[in-house]
Amino acid sequence: MFFLVAQKCLDQISDLILEEIPKAEYASLLNDYVESEFFLIDGDSLFITCISEEKLQLGQNLHFFYIMERFLLDLTSKGGKYVIVFFKDAEHVYLSHPHLLSLRTTMILHLQNNTDIPIYTEFSNCLEHEWQLFLKDRYPYFLIVSDEGLNKSQTNFINILIIHALSKSINVVLTSGQESDTIRVYGYLIHSIHKNYIRLVLCAVTCSLGLQMYREKFKKKELTLQEATDLIRMYCLSVVFLSHLSLSQRAQVRLINSDWNKEHKSHEFLVLKYLATDKSSWEVDLTHLPDLSDNLLWKNVAHYCEVENDQGLQLDMGKGIQRDYVDLWNIVSEESYFGASFPLRETTRLFLEQKHSLPKDKKTKDLSIAAQMMRMIHVLIGKHQELLQKHHLKKLAKCLQYLGFENLAYTLSTQVILTEKMRKETYMGRPARFQLQCMGHYLFRDERSDPDPRVQHFIPDTWQRELLDVVDNNESALIVAPTSSGKTYASYYCMEKVLRESNEGVVVYVSPTKALVNQVVGTIYNRFTKKLPHGLVVCGVFTRDYRHDTMNCQILVTVPQCLEILLLSPHRQEWVKKIKYVIFDEVHCLGGEIGAEVWEHLLVMIRCPFLALSVTISNPEHLTDWLQSVKRYWQNAESTMEEIPNSFTTARKGTRKAKIQNTKKKSYTVKLVLYGERYNDLEKYVCSLKDDSFIIDHYHPCAALTVSHIENYGIPSDIAFSPRESIQLYDTMVKVWQEWPRVQELDPEEFVYFKNKIIITKADARKYEQELKKELTVWISLGQSEKVTKMETAAQNIFRNVKKKQMIRLLCFNEFIITLMKIFRRVRYQRKGMLQKKLARRGIGYHHASMAYKERQVVEMLFRMGYIRMSGRAGRRGQDVLGSVFFYDIPLPKVEKLIKSNVPQLKGQFPLSISLILRLMLLAAKADDKLDARAKVLSVLSHSLMTFKQPKIEEMLKIYFIFSLQFLVKEGYLDEEGNPMGFTGLVTHLHYHEPSNFVLVSFLTKGLLHKLCQPIEKGSTVFSEDVMETLVLVLANLFGRKYLPACTTEFKGTFSQSKVFLDDLPEDFAAAVHEYNSKIEKNFGCFLLTTTKLADMEQEYQLPLSRTDFTGKNDDPSELTSHLMNSNKNITAVSPFACLSGMMDEDLFSAVLRTIGVNAKNATLLWLKKYDYAERRMPLNAYALDFYKHGSLIALTRDNWLNEGEAYNLLRDFSLMIKAIEISLGELCDDENDNVVLAFKQLSKGYAARLHPV
């Protein structure tokens, strides 16, 4: 019976994992917070992944270690911080494979002795108590693990590890499908599970096993079966509570002083103790799963049942909790009936020893009135002291004395005496503590008092004046400053300057997202009005799906990809020359996963000055040096162009307007402006739901720090405390270490910058914060780590419920109700229009890219009308005094990572592609100003951020460019003079989709699309649904390539409307793809062979991570040696470690020399079938074809494992792609009745019609 139930549990766990894996997000693993992210690698999963490498021959151990170290180096070189864990129990899997057990042991010893990676081997399995403590202490963000073992037992072991990690709020990353490029590692990320059924399944199986074994195995019992059943009922209810309570609610759980009875201590986990002694098979370790329970919560349930319920307290547990509890109990008693779910107790047995009563909450004073009084004193003394007379000072002193600050009062006047009545009503607080704790957000900032004539509405700080000087001098600048600090004002000053100077000049604002485009446009319309000649406007917009007044505006707001189109368009260069300034907002996107290279292209192609704004750049000096090198290039290039007669650029100077414009000397300087201080503090809150109440708990930043983090990385520079959080930290430090030597020195009343000061400034508070941070690190260096650990726990307990009502009000609709109703009429026919309207009535508005255009527009209109926008701009200067950040439905470990993690350095992405090179050649050949165009092309080719100060990588890119040109000439896209021809227009139009754009052209040239696109009858222009569906199938295999993890093919569920897994291409189309790939392999293979001269062969003979050198010595030759090593293999470009498994130069794409700086992902190959490390095929998601057939977005979310927003974005991109092909083919084909042109026109219209209603 026991083993049947255990196997049933394992099968349930396997099914749960198969339900979660298809929902995995294919994401960049080390994207935003790489420097201090911490994650785990399961050592046996690493072993499985490397030993399963297709080209590895069994017994070639050195090749195995090379593969393993390359895997780890890929993570280490990109900033990953991780440890590797080998569980003891996993050894049993290899007992029947001694050669694998030996290799695994060697692997552990090698990693321990030859690398700096922390290796843990002391844990038996993931369910033991020590492992739970380790997870609690280290809080890993994710676990890298395989989804399949070498046999069934190992797969079960891994499944339990996965489900345990997910239930502990630890994300899981699969080794299957993991890939990398120059600066990123990608993988399938399964987000931690917060759904109820995980705990319920584990609880149900364990309790069922426990009760059955209690009845069947044990004859001498001090608890009766009915009493044990009562105990299990209460335990089940506590587990259900865990599924319904947030961590912030559990942190407020009542403290039950009663202990479990001794008899209970002996028997509560009697079953677990029995099973722990039985090591016959792995399945028995499942009984440790109740370790996921909360003992204090269980005791609370028992206290309620044994004491409060017996005293007459009858409380409704809630419909949801009661339903889940009944369902859970039914599962527990499924195998053998143990009674009904209610009542919770059928016996009178007491399981708790009754002790003291529960502590009562203390009441606190409302000090808001006192804070306002002190604030007025600050204003009068700090800003108007020269106007104050003696009697004024006396009154102010009386106020200070009334507040209880007699020492401060006497600094103003010594003649104040309080009456006894007044003395009784004073706020007896200490002045420094009071100012920090109650009015920290009102403390004076260091601000200048001298106005700047360039600014009308406020007095700019010194660093802001520096920005204004940059614009006035036509200089460029990289500006790194916190959000809402005031850096954006320089952008609008720049716009104002361009508008003021002429009617022809253009300023371009580059936004990272379309959502931000709309917001900026609204702000510009509110800020600027100007009377312009007919046909010109102030502001224009250009995004992928919307353009308005793009070429006839003075301020263009756009996204990077669209500005790149304009800069590379041969016939838009006259307009490009009108650009006077470019503003790059959030320029740190230069280090992003998608489109990073586009930001590079823009920065190196523009000739005008620029402002590059960012909040998060960790290496701004390096970026500034690179930008300055680009400007020096343009200084030399423009000087050369001016010397060449009859050039287009020189000719323009003949006009009077050009002469006027050239009277100002052009600047090529790039300045770095750094400002690290937030004007207003940010305080963090964790939000949760309790019954119908919305709970908001304060989260102290120190709760995110650990001793190990401070030891390894220090306290992150961007972690800041509000003044009251500094007080909380000091109080906690005093409580933890009562003999602390500096307790008096750092007491707020004694601190040197606070003592006897009526006005404590923000700068004073920041100095106090820095002293406390410094002291924390000193504690660790003095061996007081244990106390810091206690402080971490105490900081986490600073969570206190602060407000239960509506603290956040995004939108208020009591005013302008008629206007609002008119606005919401715009979305009355939108799919989510009614929901948006209902939420807005409750003060909630949301805005994101997946919304319909009109839905987004409504929110943008409300924002421009003055309603509060919260996200992204908390603590805005001039509008807020304090910023509040709310974490809603985000796991606590993720909150901690967000708070303490640093941002990665900007290193640059691989900058070139064959499509880009074709676009550059098109610009150089067709542009009106050839010199300018060629200068732009050379700038793109020679100024990659990745190659900056890296001459070998720069040389590699030159070779890549040459071979790309060779391919374009061979395939008929360029003639021998480099002029574009053939289908260049179509390929460049679809440059987003390389290599699918080149494959589509091969289908056209081979007549495959014409063969497919046959109308329903001769002379007709209509095509059957079969033709349309086949055409979508072809396009989905090219342009809708979203892979699913390999194990999804094992999913046992049924799909209601979708097919889910995309069918292969028809045979003739597949053959054309194979032919295309052969050409690319040949061309790119030659490129790789050529670049091998750039390899560092000294490093190639070392293991990548440990640097263990295997160069060795060539001993005196012997006949036997010559005989054994006599091989004519071509191995010039393949790693010598891979050669041990028989790999040669024809295996370049699997084992090219790693030090040449390029990998197979840079080859424009279109793999028809993709396999993971275990040679399992990874299927393509058929979302594009499924939607065309059923037209249901809901079906895609239900069957195709896509969330609604992602599905909508994918479908919209697919529809835009079809439209782009339709337009390009119409421009290329002289015959408007060509069947392929007509088919794409029909498909474009049909797909858009299906997408429009959603």
From TrEMBL:
Residues 468-635 form the Helicase ATP-binding domain. It holds the Pfam family DEAD. This is DExD/H-box helicase 60. It comes from the Eukaryota. InterPro entries: DEAD/DEAH_box_helicase_dom (IPR011545), Helicase_ATP-bd (IPR014001), P-loop_NTPase (IPR027417), PIN-like_DDX60 (IPR055124), SKI2_subfamily_helicases (IPR052431), WHD_DDX60 (IPR059032). One of its GO terms (cellular component) is cytoplasm. One of its GO terms (biological process) is defense response to virus. The keyword Nucleus does not apply. One of its GO terms (molecular function) is double-stranded RNA binding. Keywords: ATP-binding, Helicase, Hydrolase, Nucleotide-binding.
